[in-house]
Amino acid sequence: MFRVSIAVLCGGVGAARFLDGLVRVVDPAEVTAIVNVADDAVFHGLHVSPDVDTILYTLAGMVDEGTGWGIRDDTHEVQAALARLGRETWFQLGDTDIATHLHRTALLREGLPLSAVTARLAEAFGVRVRVLPASDEREETHVRTDDGWLAFQDYFVRRRQRDAVREIRFDGPLTPGPGVREAVAGARVVIVAPSNPLVSIGPILAITGLRGALAATRAPVVAVSPIVGGEAIKGPAAAMLASLGHDVSPAGVARLYADFLDVMVIDERDAALAGAVAATGARPVAAPTIMRDAAAKERLARAVLDAATAHA
Ligand code: FO1
């Protein structure tokens, strides 16, 4: 078992699966997950933090493995009742999931910052990884489509990611959450999870001082490519990269991280792209990256840590 402090920049489902593998080979107490909060939204008056919850539910063994988000075997009675009252219910919230949002919203109203609320939720769920919202302030992703600017969940869930994205902007004061900058600066290894580089990792990198902290650290910074065989493992990353003029490849992702990245872990089937990745300045390492089951997750975590150790 590795005992070094590790900081992981995280979006939602891909990052959660990666962390699930990482904690099988590393003491979870050594891991700090720095999580995107720019997808957060208010539904029915409740503050929902999708990426934070996806990570908490996954690490607690409660996640719905089919969708990758939400709680396994959750019921939807509240949602059905809300629909009967005439409310819009395109964003699906399960009954047990709603308890999380009620609790979070109540604590926020009592004046606790999101970081403290998240720590309480992690403790309640028995999650030992330190889960840090990237910021305690409200950061909001908006995407410009041919129909104008849309709030992130409008684009992602209500319109099912079918619009071409022409521009992305992150609104907010963008101050890092407590412990975030220190987690990056103090880590012996920094990992960028296989998450959407534009709308999951992008909002974290937009926070004041974080890109600089990543560039300044002497620890190896290792990313896992979320693009395999020219496609995104999950979600709209491929279409988004293409519509914004980036290469839909691990090299295209490495270029977005070029100012701080040391190693890019690419899938074995993309081994031929190693030269293109190396041209961005990152050292390519090919490994099986598809996390089909627990063994595959663990194998990927080991490959990433081996790549980091070889680089250090
Ligand atoms: N994703 C969907 O595609 N449809 C949903 O209705 C939906 C509801 C939802 C509720 C709680 C939660 O924590 C996540 C939820 N997600 C849903 C996932 C979420 O929108 C995305 O995974 C992230 O925002 C992108 O990382």
Structure, explained:
With 312 residues, the protein is of the alpha/beta class. It has one domain (6-137, 172-311): 3-Layer(aba) Sandwich (Rossmann fold). The chain contains 13 helices and 14 strands. The protein has helices spanning 13-25, 50-59, 77-84, 95-109, 114-125, 152-158, 180-186, 202-205, 210-216, 237-243, 250-256, 274-278, 294-311, and strands spanning 6-10, 31-35, 41-43, 46-48, 130-133, 140-145, 148-151, 167-171, 189-192, 221-224, 227-228, 231-232, 263-267, 283-287. A 7-stranded parallel beta sheet has the order 5-2-1-9-10-13-14, with helices on both faces. A hairpin with a 2-residue loop joins strand 6 (140-145) and strand 7. Helix 1 packs parallel to helix 2, helix 1 (13-25) packs across helix 13 and helix 4 (95-109) packs across helix 5 (114-125). It is globular. The mean pLDDT is 96. Bound molecules: ligand FO1. Ligand FO1 is lined by residues 11-13, 39, 48, 50-51, 53-54, 69-70, 91-93, 97, 153, 156-157, 200.
Average pLDDT level: 96
What compounds are bound to the protein?
ligand FO1
CATH homologous superfamily descriptor: CofD-like domains
* Oligomer category: single chain
Please give the number of β-strands.
14
Unreliable segments of 5+ consecutive residues: none
Distance linking N and C termini = 18 Å
CATH topology: Rossmann fold
Gross CATH architecture: 3-Layer(aba) Sandwich
Q: Encode the helix/strand succession as letters.
A: EHEEEHHHHEEEHEHEHHEEEHHEHEH
Lateral arrangement of strands in the main beta sheet: 5-2-1-9-10-13-14
